[in-house]
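Before the break, one more example. Copy the sequence into your notebook; we will annotate it together after we see the structure.
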Amino acid sequence: MLTIHNQGMYYKNGSFIPARDGAAAGLPAPEQAKQGTMAYAILKAHNTGEDMDNLAIRFDAMASHDITFVGIIQTARASGMTEFPLPYVLTNCHNSLCAVGGTINEDDHVFGLSAAKKYGGEFVPAHQSVIHSYMRERYAAPGKMILGSDSHTRYGAYGTMAIGEGGPELARQLLKKTYNIAYPRVIAIYFTGAPIPGVGPQDVALELIRSTFKDGTVKNAVMEFFGPGVANLSMDYRSGIDVMTTETTCLSSVWPADDTLKDHLAVLGRGEEFKPQAPADGAYYDGVIEVDLSAVRPMIALPFHPSNAYTIKEFQENMDDLLHQVDEDTMRQLKLKNQPASLREKIVDGKFRVDQGVIAGCSGGTYQNIVRAAQILDGHPIGSGEFWLSVYPTSQPVNLELTRRGYIASLMAAGASIRSCFCGPCFGAGDVPANGGFSIRHSTRNFPNREGSKPSDGQVSYVALMDARSIAATALNGGVLTGADELPEPPVDPAVEPFAYDPTPYQARVYFGVGKPDPDQELVFGPNIADWPEQVALPDNLLLTVCSAIYDPVTTTDELIPSGETSSYRSNPIKLSDFALSRKDPQYVPRAKEVLAVERLRRTNPGDPQVGEALMGRDPASTGLGSMIMALKPGDGSAREQAASCQRVLGGVANLCAEYATKRYRSNVVNWGMLPFIAEDVKDWNIQPGDRLYLPGIRAAVDSGAEEVSAVLIQNGVEKPVTLKLPGMTREERDIVLAGCLINYYAK
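Here is what the structure looks like once it is written out:
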């Protein structure tokens, strides 16, 4: 089914040759042969300098949703931006719909429209499209690069290299700066065969994720898809696989530009943007993953991560053991004091019963997925029991075509609830199951609380990821978990799905203002929209207090700053910061605030006894106080910069870890002026909240380019010298940290 080659390989005449045999086969050195990849050609075209080892990228377009665009625009404004220098699309698909927030949700949207008018952008009102569907329909094309402030910014199926990053990286593009990275590894994903009926794109994606995530096989690499199997996949099918590559922790992805894409772009009214794209014969790859599509079977990713995946058959054969593990993970992940009802109670007569199905978002709500679900359920009511089904078409043009062809009517007649174009089920702001409920979703993530529950209030529910086809098969069986391949005649996914694109809904509602800034337009601020609080430069010396220590193997951004209802306060940095680590470590915020209060006192009244006590006799004129978080591997998941910025707002000055889960989280840490420390053996230090870390001469060390810093770890009154690492920090990153944050850096 899937074979991984963790070694350099040449692609020649439809097969792969190990790097060690390249010379004998008459192939050039890897450094030259890597230029034959699709990734190299695109990166070279967008690199503003001559150095291909250290890239300085300018993108063709950008996209943000309403969780992030206010903060990005506020950052860019504070740094001197006067207009959008490239097409910038503001969508509102993360419209939180939270009653608790009053006007603040729509206030953000009104601000976004006023910003699009003032600075020359494109504004997509709520319920029109989810961010990635809109960009696929309107902007993605072969050879382009697009930057988005959402981690699932992936348009590789269109031949576009897209990257999801934290907000400050988008602010940099708005300031006409570059995206700076070392040239990435490029891993070939070689498809053969064709999916069997009943197997959808989510199944292929979950197989890839479970095979690569744990070992970091494609971490921070570009996944380059090609091979004869690609021709057997429609555009929606390709996009469904592609958007989930984020969960492998790769940097980006890219696919060939073939006749299927050519015809699809013509349907979208953008046929002139097509240009052929494929790997050159003899191209060199840093690794290869071979996938036989015909061997993939329907999958389920159990809580609480997309990589916790099994075939549905494997799950059915081992339900008791696997659900027992989920029960244990629930206690550990959610930090519960009392064990909730076991999921094994949902096994009835040897079959697992689920409570809810959802097909939604940029991965699940595509035209082809919903058509397959409608075909499976056509004429078959899902029943009046506990199980229910919601379907969210990914955009209004898709919804319009589904309606015209009768598929929406089929789903409604079967008892499915048809919703608007909304990302809520992906981040915990819609369709929250009942306490103890188990939801199966064709969406992007199943992290803790992604379904919207509040464990701190005694609520526990669960999300598993599945493909729309198997969700529909489960609905057909009244909520009994069923793989679509178990159906007597599962519908076939053709390589070309009949589809007509009508952009009328966009023409009726979208504000198209790219390249047409109006400086006289006033920004419209709601009462919750606030500027970033002032941050100070890095002091000469630092005395840090550990305010949270997390020993989980991986810490997600959702744990650092929760998604869902919390997002109501997305545009108010101070209010939002109160939710930092609220589900993981509720004492983090009060601990951090206590340190910050004394640090502010140091800056205004250095002689105060509290300052002297906190500094342990050190000079208040040259030694600053700050908080820090220790986590073994932080940053998997969302690109939301708030996972870092909320720490900074609370006085955070550093993260210490064994490694960072993703580049984008580390970038957010740096851009918000925090030190991205690494110590591979930090697990053995037994760091706990309240421990201190003294860093003498830290400003000079950072300024001088030091990659190792001497520090003193203070635990229970005992001091111990330790060494912290700052590997790979560029000169600009060091200057940002020295300045205190990106805003300060550009305001100099």
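Residues 588-604 form the longest helix (17 residues). The CA atoms of residues 485 and 662 lie 35 Å apart. Try to locate both features in your own notes.
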